[in-house]
Design goal:
Elements lengths: L1 H19 L6 E5 L5 E5 L5 E4 L2 E4 L5 E5 L8 E6 L5 E6 L8 E4 L4 H4 L3 H19 L19 E5 L4 E4 L2 E3 L5 E4 L5 E3 L4 E9 L3 E9 L2 E11 L6 E2 L4 E5 L9 E8 L2 E3 L14 E2 L6 E2 L5
Parallel strand pairs: 8-10
Antiparallel strand pairs: 1-2, 2-5, 3-4, 3-6, 6-7, 9-12, 9-21, 10-11, 12-19, 13-18, 14-15, 14-17, 15-16, 16-18, 16-19, 19-20, 21-22
The structure holds zinc ion.
Length: 293
């Protein structure tokens, strides 16, 4: 008897909770810090407003969001429920600071490019921007956790550091650098679709893998590209080789991630923190810190 009563009243209670909004089942889980991400859960059919974007939840009522390097905590998510009414969530982000990275000895054309190089750089930026504007609903790599390190090697650059190139302050480093010998295989960290695969002035051979719902990986300085724009790739699939093409001082993989145009810290997708000198293992979420660090 009791079970029957519960069966009748639970849906009613849920409906009432959703209609009120304040207790609606909106959940936010992830790595809640600048450069990190969250998976937001809400009733299917809801819509999220965050960071200048309005995004409909997937059929399971889930979607990803990313937090910018210089986010001011708390950030605010607004969920519009299918029946109308809104739920506002304040998300407190853990504090985070960034180091300063000085790089000297770069060729002049990369630091102060001539007009011709500059024009090509602008075309490259436009192509990358166009790829980042795409919104793929049918790709579900964004749901996979953890992501996998795309290459094994030593961390030589971390997300967010302020860069000073040949003594000139430049924009922060929006990615993780992993040093590995030229030709080392590079694997897809999660399922996706290749939306860009071409040579660019600064980033050399560049690959962009769209993981769906605005989330994507960018690999730079590759020796060889083994996939083409439009290809579907699976988590763990070999997609390229490590190289030193473009503005690179030695062979390494630059792995950047973004949610729309917001640059994220790839390490947060393995739920780890990395420092320079750490070793990461390809196709795992593992970080090995040398003893005494
Ligand atoms: Zn880099």
């Amino acid at each position: 008897m009791n079970r029957v009563v519960l069966g009748l009243f639970l849906p009613l209670w849920l409906w009432a909770a959703v209609a009120r909004g304040d207790t609606a089942p909106v959940r936010v889980e992830g790595v809640l810090k600048p450069g990190g991400w969250a998976i937001v859960t809400a009733p299917a059919g809801s819509e999220l407003r965050f960071g200048g974007h309005v995004v409909k939840f997937d059929w399971l009522g889930r979607l990803p969001v990313g937090f910018a390097r210089d986010s001011h905590s708390p950030v605010q998510l607004v969920v519009t429920l299918p029946q109308g009414g809104q739920v506002v969530r304040q998300i407190v982000l853990a504090p985070r600071d960034y180091d300063i990275q000085r790089i000297n000895g770069l060729k002049r054309k990369y630091v102060s490019p001539d007009p011709e190089t500059l024009a090509q750089i602008r075309r490259d930026i436009a192509a990358a921007k166009a790829a980042r504007k795409r919104f793929l609903r049918q790709v579900s790599g964004w749901r996979e956790r953890p992501f996998l390190w795309p290459v094994g090697g030593i961390i030589t650059g971390v997300y967010g550091s302020q860069r000073i190139l040949n003594g000139k302050p430049r924009r922060p480093h929006f990615g993780v650098d992993i040093a590995a010998p030229k030709g080392t295989p590079v694997f897809a960290p999660a399922d996706g679709v290749v939306t860009l695969a071409q040579n660019m002035v600064l980033s050399g051979n560049t690959l962009m893998i769209d993981h769906g719902y605005g989330l994507r990986s960018t690999f730079m300085h590759l020796n060889r590209l083994l996939v083409r724009a439009g290809d579907r790739v699976r988590r763990g699939q070999k997609v390229a080789e490590v190289g030193a093409t473009g503005r690179a001082t030695g062979p390494h993989l630059h792995w950047g991630m973004s949610w729309f145009a917001t640059r994220l810290d790839p390490a947060t997708f393995m739920a780890v923190e990395v420092r320079k000198g750490d070793r990461v293992r390809a196709l795992t979420a593992t970080v090995v810190r040398p003893a005494g660090k």
